[in-house]
Amino acid sequence: MLRKAINLATLPNVSALLSPWRAILTSSANLISRHEPSPVLTPQSLQSRVLSGQSFAEPLHYDEATLLMHYLDHVFPYQYPFFDKARLSRGWLLWLLSKNGPLYRASMGLAALHQRSLLGEKDNHHIELEFHTKAVRQLQDFLVSIDINELRPENETLVEIITCGIALISFEVLRGSATDWQPHLSAMSSIAVMMHNQPSLPQSVDQLPTPLFEGKATAAMAFHLPVLLWMDLLACVATREAPKLPYDEWLGPNCTFQLAHIMGCHNSVMKGIGDIATLSQWKSDGAERGTLDLENFQTKRQLIEDELESVMDTTPMASMGSQGLSSRTQPSIHMKSEQRPEQDSVTRIFAAAALAQLAALTAKVSTDISVTVVRRSVSRVILEIKMASQMISPRQLSWPICVTGCLADPDQQPFFEVLLDSVLSEGTGMIGNCGTVRDILRACWTNKAQQPNQQWDCGSTMKQLGTYALLI
């Protein structure tokens, strides 16, 4: 998919597609600006710089340089803790940041937010809002001033739009927003779908991009489209809908990327998570119309379960030495992994959580799945998290913790409570969505205690609360 030629000149609907997003960006900038103080960080020279394509014309102001290094050294690794530096380069990132466009502003906002969190300053948020406001305004101006229907594959504008959009999503997630990420993800996903659906068109030699630029643009897209896919798949719990992106094709036999090298979890498990979301929507649509085919549902469910169990069978467990157990107790079916140990652990945790989610979904439509099966699935996730506790932070497990924790029985619930408390008591406790995850778990547990005859899960609890967290 990533190697497919992109020709936006044949997309007459792209401009119409982005119109609502432009309006949202304008509204967001106006809303933030009401609370924005006079600039205290950026010099006048920064405010006079133009849009993307104009690299830094002079040395960075010292405060900006400090934030830039903080982003590269701390925030990027925080966002993508499993980024495989041995396989992937970050040259494209420095290239994009040096273009001094909206991505640069958004990244500085992320850095300021993270730095404030480390310092424990709960109220001093004007710096990140200042950068964030400039990023939103700049991107809005960027979209308005350029005819997006005239973009060509070699035009770096497309790369800047996608990368900045993802940075805006990250900003909303890191500051704990439960809804503001949705317009950005919807717009980015729609653009990516239209890119995917474009046929490969022959180009004359003089139309081909130079190898140097092709490398920069391809590297940036090769990183951000998988990240976008990751977000789209994990957003399904909040949206209660099937994935927007063609995940089954992107993660198929011709896939050119491995999510484990970016986000920690293997492609096969992420495909299973997408399959469960698709099955859930198919089940809901059928039940609403009164046409639900239980036999077909069971066939689809069994296929997903078999694929996820296969991953569990073939992915090594975390080293059990630190837990006082001999690693020789690992099943012999486990083969030497091509992933790092922490990637294997994340893969197993997500796979186990997906199996618990699948069991709960099946219990809603079939009496063949007992509550004991769901309970055992939750216990399995708890064991996997315990085994990986020395390698994996709960911050990297928002999705499995929230999905599985909502299914936990009363005697299992304290494990998830303590797990999240350990994170929220840290200096960076106010950054990210761990606090939101804990609120969702507590609300779900209360609902289950007060309404035991109803089936509560992560998605239904979010809907009740009006809190739609992106669990990344």
Automatic annotation (TrEMBL):
It is found in: Nucleus. Residues 315-332 have a biased composition (Polar residues). Residues 315-342 are annotated as: Disordered. GO terms for cellular component: nucleus. GO terms for biological process: positive regulation of transcription by RNA polymerase II. It comes from Gibberella intermedia. Keywords: Nucleus. It comes from the Eukaryota. The keyword Nucleus applies. GO terms for molecular function: DNA-binding transcription factor activity; transcription cis-regulatory region binding. This is C6 zink-finger protein PRO1A.
